Each structure stands twice: as C-alpha cells, then as structure tokens.
Amino acid sequence: MHQVPPQQRHTGGDPDRVALAYTIDTEWRNRAEFVKGREAVRELLRRKWEKERHYVLRKYYFGHVQNRISVCFEYEYQDEAGQWYRAYGNENWEFAQNGLMRKRIASINEAPIAEGERRIAVDSPTRNTWLAEQGVGGEFPLGGGSKLAY
Q: Name one Pfam family in it (predicted).
C-alpha cells in the first residue's frame, strides 16, 4: 500500500476547502455526533482541528462496492494541555453521481499515548501481516511488535 512521505501527510486543514468535497446535503456520523449539510461539516472540522493540534493522519483503502468505499485509519494529535493521543477507526463513504461524498460514517476509538510512543510521523510503520495477507493495507500499523494496539 502506498505511504505518503511524512512531510506530505495531513497536519491540519482548511475546513472551507475540505467541505467542498461533500454534497450540500451530506450526512455524517463522526463518533457519536450526527451532522447534516456542508455547513455543519465545516463547523465540525473547525472544532476538530482547533482541538486536535499537530494532527497527523494515515488512511488505508479497505474495500469498495459500487459508489461506497471503506477505509481504515489512524491519527495522532496533541491537545491544548500537551497530551498526545492516537485514534483508530473505520470510515464508510458513499458518493453521489457528481463524485462528491454524500455520506460519511466514522467509528473512532482513541487512547492517550506518551510523546515517545508516536509512530505515524515516522518512516517505518509496523507491518500488519494479517492485512497484508488479505491484500489490503499491509502497512497499516496496528501494533508495535508484540505490543497490542487495540
């Protein structure tokens, strides 16, 4: 699976620009929050990126059927108090005929980590052999050697 070099990874964003990738009436579930409409998505992203500083993200294609795609992801961020977090999850996307995303369903779990445990902004992710055997996202870092990540 293709990895984006660390210097090109997402480290925060422009909610106004990102929201344009979604339909006017898009529907999202992000964790336990439900939003409807591009404007609501824009506000959700503003709040998210104000809270999640030094945000670094990896996404991995998992599968698709017709106009629906599933991805796995993990990201790390630091809060205002300096605590680092790592989040894992899955997203299901549904696209409209014009290519804009109509639905996004995100299930996300996160845990606090020490700064020394960060691994997304590193060049050698842990290889996950199960995903590699399935032919999807073998570089998805689910653990640090024998250390369980879930």
A: DUF1348
Is the pLDDT at 127 greater than 70, yes or no?
A: no
Distance of CA 97 to the CA centre of its chain: 24
pLDDT score of 42 more than 50? yes
How far apart CA 61 and CA 59 sit, in angstroms, is: 7
Q: What is the helix (H) or strand (E) element at residue 17, kind and residue range?
A: helix 15-19
In one-letter notation, the amino acid at residue 39 is: E
Report which of 68, 70, 51 is spatially closest to residue 59, judged by C-alpha positions.
70
Per-domain residue ranges for the chain?
15-119
The mean of the pLDDT values for the chain is 81
For domain 15-119, give the fold: Nuclear Transport Factor 2; Chain: A, (3.10.450)
Residue-wise over 58-85: b if at least 16 C-beta within 10 A, else e? bbbebeeeeeebbbbbbbbbbeeeeebe
